[in-house]
Amino acid sequence: MPSSPLISLRRAAWPILLALVFLLPAAGRAQGNPPRIVESTAESRFPDAVVFRLTAEADAPIEKIWLYYAMQGDISTTRQAVAFTPSRQVSAEYTWDTSRITVPPSSPVLFYWEVRDAEGNLTRSEETVFRYDDSRFEWQELRQDDLVVRWYEGDAAFGQSLFETARQALNRMEQESGRPLDFPVYLVVYPNREDFASWHSYVEEWVGGQAFPPLGVTVEIIAPGDPTDWVQDVIPHEIAHLFFYQAVHGATADWPRWLDEGVAQYYEPGDHARDLALVSAAAKEGNLIPLEILSGSFGSDTGKVYLAYAESLSAVLYMRETWDEASFAAFVAALREGAHLRDAMQTAFGVTWEEFVAGWLTWLGTPATPAPPPTPTPTYVYPTAPSWYTPTPLGETAGLAASPSPEPSSTPRPAVTATPSPEETVPPGGGVTIGAALLFWGCILCGAGLSMLFGAGILFWRWRIRHR
Prior knowledge:
By secondary structure, this protein is an alpha+beta fold. 38% of the residues lie in helices and 20% in strands.
């Protein structure tokens, strides 16, 4: 007597049910108390390494420990499996090698741990922000709200003068942009080029200051007794890079290079007559570089780099002299909300891009109806330094000029950011990003489910054939 369809379907379902049981995550079968984090620390061995340490305990033997870490502003987090001896009480350690990359002092490093025991219980620690300070020196510090200034050579009066210069610049930027900082900024001051160069993978001889906007850090070479005009120019310049990164930062914000550098120079209190004269002469001779071309790298030709910076400054000066603070604040707000540069100008200033350029040329003393610029085909440079950088041996030093050449700051946007060392880069390497892990297991589960459904269909079809 042939078996009933119901009995056959039950028999066919057993393999599917068993497969689903084995595919369930181990965490779903976990019982008991989760592991407990006893201690979590990070140690600076600047500039060579960060050492992360964990002590944990559990009722069942701890079998897995993962460290998750990233620099502030990174778009992904590195997941690193940490080696240790399984036990109910464990200590684990992982060293992040930074000796071959450029990580500035006082960079914020975000990290947390995951610990899993033999029963599948999982614990995740709270995320910690660790400041990767240069532990080789005895730092002095002044701190107020959203500003921190650190130096190690010079007395309290020297530090106070640095702080006041930075504070005044920030206050002015906040007032004119209509918004405060999103996170604090750090001004870190080295007194000589040798110490400054020691944490770089490369640095040009003329560099006097650098800004790392996603990190909120600017590092500068300023010694007690340096010319006042240099100090009063370089600090506001680099602070402006940090501030306006935060002011306009967004997923679609359009902040071209000429605008970034022009705004930074605008906040320098020094005399810009020489720069404006250079731009006016280039305009009259028909040698201006179209602003559209200056959206990316300024190139490597010294003369063109000087002109690019001078043009950037003059365009921002024209903008600020033509429209009031409220219009400028509206312009910044539109960019932050994701508007394209042209749309932001139309919204805040009431002019098209072509009208803005024509007005700028008239302001320079040239005809207001220039020929259309060529279609820009700049080569965008997104390494950890501009394309004209070449490594400087760390043993070499040079005196600090009041106006380093070819520019007063070395870090154009995008800013210098740390890249994980080869053994930690994902992929390949020991760590994987969370998104990649979820995608992998999602594919496995989906594939298993489809396979089981296909198998059930085959069994049902065979039963139908036998019982026709």
